[in-house]
Design goal:
With 417 residues, the chain is of the alpha+beta class. The protein contains 15 helices and 10 strands.
Length: 417
């Protein structure tokens, strides 16, 4: 590719990697106009990306700078400002970030995540039961989408009778992710109203869930406002479910396209080779990860990234998908190698904003792939890969649908998740 590539087209969404390779070589820190009209710097090389992700001069808080006119109201999650949901980990800096992250991190300790494994396994099996006898399925909406939704609802403490509402709202956010912002904003408003009500209900009857934990912390002098509690729950839902959907969807497609690697992973599950399973998840996160661009950052003072001068207030987007295929850091960067040992990918970010839910996403990914490939060992893509459509959002990268066929399971009556 010798000419400057077109960015953010439908063809780009289907395969952005050649364009990112061109940018890494010719314009590693590139000012681009986004579909929204916002002009932002795209950081594409691994070394620059890692530096930018940890640079305190790049603020996550839009209130810490004057936004350029072309960016006002067009950054972040649609609807979060009007719904008073801005005070979450993706939008704040220390010391508030340090305080809130410390509170929420208690829900993602290794012990808590390990305790959650039986529930995630039960969810995965129940979802698979719903289509295993049929011989065909659409894996995104029947498996990859509901699994993390119900899991994060359990973690938050959303009552079972309300979880289908969350699934509907999350579906609105997915369907409208690359289209009109109004659909997402409406879903955000409904989630905000529900969370306000749920927080009030939880105060009367605390449980062993994340919302109850946030309320207890607030009542013990941690000064957590209701808006902060609602915003934290919202961002865990928003960031948590779509990340796992894309990990499962993108990873499954990568396995279909690389049958030798798929066979290797199936052998690892059969033999209980946990080490290979772990490296496989990390490689899927690197190779075609769920988060294409890290969330918004804004320069609070003039600075240089990769030799390019960034002005105060300029939006900066670190392109994780480009950094994770940088040949300066990864050998055979375009090859899926599930046994890759040296793999410090940036799929979950880097620095103080490293994804707090990463342990849960890894757990959900391991269980999803193990359940799918063990119970449906001959599962295959039902269409030509070129027919698959990708969602056109800016931050996340994932499939709209993933139709598959397989030998039906016998003796498994369908159940509801």
């Amino acid at each position: 590719m010798s000419d400057r590539p077109e960015l953010f087209t439908w063809g780009f969404a289907a395969n952005p990697y050649p364009a990112y390779a061109w940018l890494r070589e010719h314009a590693p820190v590139h000012k681009a106009q986004l579909p929204s009209g916002v002009e932002a710097w795209l950081v594409t090389r691994y070394a620059d990306a890692r530096q930018a992700l940890a640079d305190s001069r790049l603020s996550k808080n839009p209130a810490h700078h004057d936004e350029p006119d072309h960016a006002k109201g067009k950054t972040g999650i649609p609807g979060e400002r009007s719904a008073n949901l801005m005070t979450h980990l993706l939008n704040i800096d220390p010391p508030d970030h340090t305080r809130l992250r410390r509170l929420v991190s208690k829900a993602f300790t290794p012990r808590r995540v390990a305790e959650f494994e039986p529930r995630v396994q039960d969810l995965a099996d129940r979802l698979l039961d719903g289509f295993a006898a049929r011989g065909s399925a659409e894996l995104i909406h029947e498996f990859a989408f509901p699994l993390p939704i119900y899991a994060i609802c359990d973690l938050l403490g959303v009552p079972a009778e309300d979880q289908d509402d969350f699934r509907d709202w999350a579906g609105m956010m997915i369907r409208h992710g690359g289209g009109p912002r109004g659909g997402v904003a409406r879903a955000v408003k409904q989630i905000r109203a529900y969370l306000a009500d749920l927080i009030h209900r939880k105060r009367a009857e605390l449980g062993d869930d994340l919302i109850s934990g946030l309320i207890r912390a607030s009542d013990h002098g941690e000064h957590l406002t209701e808006n902060e509690a609602a915003a934290m729950c919202f961002v865990l839902l928003f960031a948590g479910f779509e990340t796992t959907i894309n990990l499962i969807g993108n990873g499954t497609l990568a396995l279909f396209r690389n049958p030798g690697q798929r066979a290797l992973l199936q052998s690892a599950f059969a033999e209980g080779d946990g080490q290979l399973v772990d490296t496989a998840i990390e490689e899927m996160l690197r190779y075609d990860g769920p988060v294409e661009l890290a969330t918004w950052r804004f320069a609070t003072e003039p600075l240089d990234i990769g030799g390019q001068r960034i002005a105060v207030g300029d939006p900066v987007l670190v392109v994780l998908a480009a950094a994770d295929r940088d040949p300066a850091r990864f050998s055979d960067e375009n090859t899926l190698d599930l046994a890759r040992a040296d793999n410090p990918h940036l799929g979950f970010g880097h620095g103080i904003h490293y994804c707090i839910g990463a342990p849960l996403a890894r757990l959900e990914g391991r269980i999803a792939f193990r359940t799918l490939l063990t119970r449906l060992p001959d599962v295959e893509l039902a269409v030509d890969p070129e027919e698959l459509r990708w969602r056109g959002g800016l931050i996340m990268r994932g499939l709209r649908e993933l139709p598959v066929t397989f030998t039906p399971e016998e003796g498994i009556p369908p159940r509801q998740a």
